[in-house]
């Protein structure tokens, strides 16, 4: 069937079996390979994308369900200015804090964390780290022990608030 | 030699050189590679643990158009040998007709088709016929040797280490002199590496040469295995590492198997083929940490000093020998722990069973033997009524002491420093009893652990490997580091750029670390054994200095003597073309090892670490929460403190997971929980905030003093966590993992202990 | 391999009609169960996709203080709903422990009810709160008490032509205490080893109402009838807690599987229910 969707702000159309996974549509049909497959069972979060603004596992979305919807992948996080790429706050923080090691879980974490800094009030309070841990629990990383990723997301949330003019 | 820049890049938390590609999704792992016309492969596997392959039937009603099927017969037909060469050649790439099936999920045949869906469908129509035989599914059965899988006794390898005695009778005499003897039996379970990128490889053939690219730790292991399998010389196969999504040992030896399969498929299909494992297949078929049982006796003098240590280590090697002798070696070499003891006897055996082969996993046998001695030391402290940390400080090996193999420790001994760091960080114990949000009683406990880990290959291993690395000034004026050490997330490329940059006075981003490919880089040895930074990093440093010296000499000859490398490199490159300096490993002086008696310097140097864990146990559900975990690690020198901290913390959580959460379940020789849902690893919500203390006691022969760090964080935290559980409940738990089920099964015992205390 | 049939109805009426027209098609909503390892399994013949079907989404108060939750309402909406927080706090608590963010954004209450796994995370809560399932078919709409809905291992009272439309949770007595405990394989993204949900009400020192829903201890979500009988009419305190735990031992035969053991499941569900009785016995204000 023909599926029209918006991916990272651009209108795209594919002709696919409606049971095909969004993950495969992104990776194979649209050649957006930043979205990774770690398990195919909705467990590891490496394939996290935003579907109509909400973080979902792309391995558990049928292509047919994407018609008319908006998808954001890791390729859509960075912005552009002066002809060059500008990393999203969470990407910059993951880089600066050492939150990426082997990197295979990193795109999913970046996408999920981008939603967190947009949608959730992550402050500098004592509960902030626990909140980040609960919200990112659907993204498994085997390299970092999570510590430096939590550091990065808390830092990105602070950068976001600073960017919005908060003290 | 050029002077180092004072504010060099070593010791600074520079961001990873591959970091931008990874955070933006631009990094290409093997399944991301666009190979025009590539087909997809799938593997037909055994469903029985032991048997004889009678036939491989193709469903006559299935449409086999556009499907390639490979069996063992295709290997010899092309002049190759059906082996996956490693230490021995006992493991076939595909079970031949009439051959023995040795484990569930062993590869029997291969298919490839234009799409992954079609390949998976075709796989269902390939039907092996196997006559089942009785299977050997535990080490006791293996040692009874009623069913013979390897030799006459099913023992792949046996080691004996003796210190301070001549024979068993003398040993028993020494043990008999102990004031008291603590005995225990310590089983530890298999563990799945659970790198988040499943294993995968792609192959294509061009002019009779096979080109492989994939997820791996050791390109030259694959290269060696392919020469035998494909019947070609070294030029006949080129192996390239793609960006690799984690390894932890799991991508040390198994990638040779996948490479074999995909090379055969691509040859027969006459086009590129990709073979990417799905998660369930990866868990079921690839290697895991060896299950192990250690029987341990600790003989103590009246004052608490150790009189004698006796450890008997038995590991389940699985169906083929693979790396098991080396894993056992490292296990026994660490089995006496970092403690002063005049008389030590360690016996180790690794045996054949019909489990899928167990293999490399971070720590490589040492976590299995660290847990027993650290439980034993804890029991001793409790028996003596002394503080467990103070007791360890008293017994710890110090400079001038000798290890179980008689190795005298002379330099870079961080034992006291790491224990002192933990003592400083410890702080007051949290309240012993509490109530959960749901009203359940909660009991807290604190555990500590002290351990060491040999850096680099055992004994004369590094001399035998004779690793090489190159630093080159290319004709275009770029500086390149060429080594076969792979970056699997641990940051090898970044620290090589820092080390080479420091030697040449360049910023790390001015140094290009070449992606390992066997046609572009020398063999630096495998990316294993906590050796990459210390050994290969040392080669990079020497090669970079040699390059700097040559360029400085050229500059001097051309009137620019004393000019920094950066200022003359372009001119030198223009004048000379490429200038490459390759250096080879040279052992530090005075390192002697006797492989026959297993005595001498087992490792050039040891890393040292200590760990403190606080746990809280919900007494209704027996769930354990790690509330605090502090680890102090002597790394020699932190080339990049951010990267080394991340590496230590990753290992720490793997260790806590192994101790308290993870479990690989075998049923009839098959992994019964082969999914990420059921073969669980810790999530963000399971992990505590990890506290890491970097201790730097420099290794004089390592780059800037650095020594091995990759594995040591895996060795101890499980023991610390379980010691904390024991501290909380007042009864012993001598097994890994300690799950809520393990604790609940002993409710009566700890309930009674709790009421008494 | 033929293409999968697909229809995305715009209304409940269209969905019911599609279901009747394609009895061998599956109803797909958040896909968190049906698409697990999809490439390794045969594709369905066809799909009736009700994801984000507006008529099936939303949380609203209905007659007399009951709460009606559309079947296609994702768990994330349950987690953040003030109405659920006020009326059915244990449903919010259970929802918050389902998978993690990504699963909560897609998984729905109707999917949980329809899949009817013995480890379905919300199902013990629906038993404890005495929920009703609303089903639509070409024959009209009917309401089934949730306690009668699961009929066996992943079998339910749903007829072949029926569609799950909504779950309704009746208003609880204001003095009732709601309690919930999931013991999973880990802290998040976990399958339950046991789950227990309870509604307990005390008047004048005695339990006057007790509903206990359990998960992962039988082939389907079940009410703990024996434990309930031991509680209702009994005085608050330890003796009743012990009696309830003893009754569970008589009525449950949990299994050993890859996630836990039979002895652990029984002992833990006993401890948890015991704790519920003790918590409800304490004079602290209902939470």
What does this structure look like?
Chain A has 167 residues and is of the alpha+beta class. In chain A, 34% of the residues lie in helices and 17% in strands. In chain A, strands 2-1-5-3-4 form a five-stranded mixed beta sheet, sandwiched between helices. Chain A has a two-stranded antiparallel ribbon with strand order 6-7. The mean pLDDT of chain A is 95. With 757 residues, chain B is an alpha+beta fold. Chain B has three domains: 19-28 and 467-584, 2-Layer Sandwich (Aldehyde Oxidoreductase, domain 4); 35-133 and 194-285, Aldehyde Oxidoreductase, domain 4; 363-457 and 597-756, Aldehyde Oxidoreductase, domain 4. Helices cover 30% and strands 24% of the residues of chain B. In chain B, the strands form seven sheets. A seven-stranded mixed beta sheet of chain B has the order 3-5-1-12-9-10-11. Chain B has a five-stranded mixed beta sheet with strand order 7-15-14-13-8, with helices on both faces. In chain B, strands 16-17-24-25-28 form a five-stranded mixed beta sheet, with helices on both faces. Chain C has 287 residues and is α+β, with helices and mostly antiparallel strands. Chain C has three domains: 5-49, 2-Layer Sandwich (Uridine Diphospho-n-acetylenolpyruvylglucosamine Reductase, domain 2); 56-169, Uridine Diphospho-n-acetylenolpyruvylglucosamine Reductase, domain 3 (2-Layer Sandwich); 177-281, 2-Layer Sandwich (Enolase-like, domain 1), CATH 3.30.390.50. Helices cover 31% and strands 26% of the residues of chain C. Chain C has ten helices and 14 strands. In chain C, the strands form four sheets. A five-stranded antiparallel beta sheet of chain C has the order 4-5-10-6-7. In chain C, helix 8 runs antiparallel to helix 9 (238-251) and helix 9 packs antiparallel against helix 10 (262-281). Chain C starts with a strand and ends in a 6-residue tail after the last helix. The mean pLDDT of chain C is 96. Classes of the chains: A alpha+beta (167), B alpha+beta (757), C alpha+beta (287).
